[in-house]
Amino acid sequence: MAIESEVLVIGGGLGGLTSALAAAREGADVRLVSYKQSTLRQASGLVDILGYTPDGDGPLTDPYEAIPSLPEAHPYRKVGVQTVRDALSLFDDAVPTYEGEHTDTNALLPTHGGSIKPTARYPAGASAGLASDTRDTLLVGIEEMVDFDAPHVAAHLDATGVPFDVRGETIRFPGDLRADAKVTRYAKLLDTNSEVAVRGRMVPAREALAQRVNPLLEDEERVGFPAILGDDNPGAIRDALGDHLGVDVFEVPMGPPSLPGLRLEDALFSALDEAGASIETGNPVVDFEGEDRIEKVFIEKNGAKIPNSADQYVLATGGFVGKGVESDRDGVYEPVFDCHVPHAADRYDWFEGELFGDHEFARYGVATDDDLRPLDASEHSEFENLRAAGSVLGGYDFAAEKSGSGVSIATGYAAGQRAAQEAR
Amino acid sequence: MSDAETPPETDFDPVAPNTGEEFEPVDVFPDSDDFDLRPGADSCFKCSTCDTNCPVAEVDDDFPGPKFQGPEQWRLKQSDDDHEIDDSVMDCSNCMRCDNACPSGVPLSQMHNTARGEYVSEQMDKLSVEYIRNRILANYRTSAFLASKVPRLANFAMNFGPARWVMEKTLGVTSERDFPAFAKQTFRDWWADRGGQVQSRENARAARKRRGLPEDADKKVAYFHGCYSNYNTPEVGKAMVRVYEEFGYEVVAPEQKCSGTPMFANGMLDDARRHAETNVSSMSELVDEGYRAIASCTSCSMALRQEYPELFDIDGVDKVAENTFEAVEYLRIHEDLKGEVQAADVDGDLAEEFAYHAPCHSRNQGLDRQAVELFRDLDGAEVEDVGDSCSGISGTYGWKEEKYEKSMEIGEEMFEHMEHAEGETGMTECPTCAMQMEHGSGYEIRHPLELLEAALVE
Ligand SMILES: Cc1cc2nc3c(=O)[nH]c(=O)nc-3n(C[C@H](O)[C@H](O)[C@H](O)COP(=O)(O)OP(=O)(O)OC[C@H]3O[C@@H](n4cnc5c(N)ncnc54)[C@H](O)[C@@H]3O)c2cc1C
Ligand code: SF4
Ligand code: SF4
């Protein structure tokens, strides 16, 4: 016996989650298995479709418009513009706490490094911070959080020519938190609104924080904090702070570990749960059985190999970071099914001289046909019932193009939907 | 690192957690006792994902979190022979959530367990109240064994107010909690009275006949009941036996001691090893005879599967790990459990809506969704997940007087979700989570095996 389903999705990142959700909504009996937590916990939580062309032109105003002129090997070209749109609608429906769906145009968001970034969807918590908004802005940094130096970020933003005045101030977070407190510690304190000691008096955390910021506020109409404002109730926390301060409050997305990424992961998992899929995390898929078709895959649990079988499979194990693509002295490979990964034979051709050069390496991943089936070295599909989605795919450089989440969502959607249709 | 601005690939070269080849549990100190975790420490690229998973760091201002306890502390130790283990390692509750997080496969909980072991054996004062208290809490089996001889008296004495006050003041065991009641008849006594293995073989044969299976089919499991279902909740053990027999399995209940979970959490590795040796020796013989080790407590299965091979070099330890399963999990793999549950219904006592909490140690085995998904289509009962927060008790952690408040703060989210859930009966696989659920909500708590028994066994 094996654990059975119609569609089995391998990998629990944005690609796998969207895939499983699309398949489940298509009516298939879906199971998602994932090893570790996804790269979402490290990502900003912003959903970029396309910010720059592969040649570095941009920031792009309309990402959809640019898709038809992408190189043929690009995942967006495989699925087509309409699928990208449909996939984003599925995302909007599953994650109602995100904004940006009212327009095709990229939004411009300030980053915690002080630059402006074109993005397609952003958490509601970031929306009062849009760079196209002309209201004057105060950024508030926390002394202990060195990766958000508010005056510095403000100066950077100012230098980009934003259409508003922006200032940065640094405060001590109320209560006696340790110097390297975790983002989740701040979030929990604000979520539960627990009391903290401020000059010997116990004050609820949200109020205490507002009291710290109040005297610093001049005539700014909005205040931005690093993204630490709650895990479970971010909306309520922003509202409470906003009421105390009499301004709009927003969060600036942060680097890893990222609360917005974590919240997005939670939202997608609950959407998947509601759609009736089965989910198992914590153990890797390490092996499979089958020739032209995959019959079974095996999940490794402390030495035991647990068989899982399905009619259709989706490979969404991520790129180099998620460990869906790996490299060693001999080359680049895909470790679960050993799908072919096209790459230059000579290691020295993988990289450019400069650190941020046009590295071929960044585009490595499996190549597929238009149905997202991985192709072997002679361009035949590797397995008739396997599709690939997300950053395990080659042909694009998410960091340079700013297309990471968009590609994962679009290809995840396409792979999941087609797998479900075939399984029925 | 800023959002997608800096390509993260460039400085990322961790050990592969999944190479596609044979998966090797990280063998840290194969032949010696020196705790060298350097290879694991080196593969940490400081992304702090583990820190976002730590329920203790979320509420405790003194706790520096898993990244510090693990890779950072090992690096310090490596560069300075005299570096002492930081005493904050005693604040880690060994929930093992950080293990599941690390994209780089750093063996975090193993690092914490060894660090704690070293701290306790080399730095802790063996005459201190804390040491004595921890030792008593960790050796629950001994207290339970004694108490089970006189369950009525023990139930009274353990929760006798003035005695509890003294325990808190002198030993640091919180008086806020009620000690779990001891059963009048232990599971093992019930098992023996019922006729032990001989009776089980007969029952299994009868079931196989009923099901049209070959009567001599080779279906047999060795039950690792653990301390709790033996002394406190024998109904869970009974449910396990009846459900397995119903599917035609012959059950044995081999000699066993504590799984060691509370000892790991308190750094009592020598105690844990002694118990592990007994457990591995009795289970490995049975595995050779074709039995699989089955546990109904997810911390017990976790110990046999992961902690033993990580920490101890005992003959047969890997073999036992590979052949250990959680009770419901094994049936899901080998039987059409889903189909049978879909065709069944429950009435009576267990026709309930349950507020289900997945224990941290089930999470690490990938079992956190099992009960909810399995019972989705069961007529007459409803199982609702109350979210992914830790219950906060973490075995002995929540029994310590100085940790009690934190334990309740961690559990607060779960209590709230329980209150919002439809059901007023709780469900979980972990006995101490069950204690915490009951303590925080007043609900009665059941084990999924009990519901399975009600659904499938006549
Ligand atoms: C630091 C950082 C910042 C980013 N910032 C942005 C941004 O601002 N905007 C944007 O749009 N995008 C951003 N991205 C990119 C975006 O987050 C990713 O492209 C996207 O999330 C990738 O999703 P995925 O599902 O393809 O892969 P992943 O998220 O890598 O998920 C892969 C999953 O597969 C699992 N897995 C791997 N091997 C196995 C196996 N053998 N068996 C079972 N499971 C397995 C892994 O454990 C993991 O859960 C960023 C990425 C990083 C790393
Ligand atoms: S085991 Fe649990 S308490 Fe200990 S460091 Fe890891 S996550 Fe934190
Ligand atoms: S999750 Fe792993 S790599 Fe990241 S900080 Fe923790 S131990 Fe290091």
Textual characterization of the structure:
The complex is a heterodimer of chains A (424) and B (458). By secondary structure, chain A is of the alpha/beta class. Chain A contains 11 helices and 19 strands. Chain A has helices at 14-25, 63-66, 75-79, 81-94, 150-159, 183-192, 205-213, 234-245, 259-274, 398-401, 404-423, and strands spanning 3-10, 30-34, 98-99, 107-110, 116-119, 122-123, 137-142, 166-171, 195-198, 201-204, 222-226, 248-252, 278-281, 285-289, 296-301, 304-315, 326-328, 331-333, 386-388. In chain A, the strands form 6 sheets. In chain A, strands 1, 2, 13, 14, 15, 16 and 19 form a 7-stranded mixed β-sheet that branches. In chain A, strands 8-7-11-12 form a 4-stranded parallel β-sheet. In chain A, strands 3-6 form a two-stranded antiparallel sheet. In chain A, helix 4 (81-94) crosses helix 11 (404-423) and helix 7 (205-213) crosses helix 8. The longest helix of chain A has 20 residues, at 404-423. The mean pLDDT of chain A is 93. Chain B is an alpha/beta fold. Helix content of chain B is 50%, strand content 6%. Chain B has helices spanning 38-42, 66-79, 97-101, 108-123, 129-138, 140-149, 151-158, 161-171, 187-194, 196-210, 226-231, 234-246, 261-265, 269-288, 298-311, 317-322, 327-334, 337-343, 360-363, 370-374, 404-420, 431-441, 448-456; strands spanning 220-224, 250-252, 292-295, 324-326, 353-356, 382-385, 425-427, 444-446. Chain B has a 4-stranded parallel β-sheet, with helices on both faces. Chain B has a 4-stranded parallel β-sheet with strand order 6-5-7-8. In chain B, strand 7, helix 22 and strand 8 (444-446) form a beta-alpha-beta unit. In chain B, helix 2 (66-79) crosses helix 4. Chain B is globular, with a radius of gyration of 22 Å. Classes of the chains: A alpha/beta (424), B alpha/beta (458). At the A-B interface, helix 6, helix 9, strand 13, strand 14 and strand 15 of A face helix 15, helix 16, helix 17 and helix 21 of B. The structure holds flavin-adenine dinucleotide (FAD) and iron/sulfur cluster (2 copies). Residues 53-54, 56, 66, 69, 92-98, 108-109, 112 of chain B line the site of one iron/sulfur cluster (SF4).
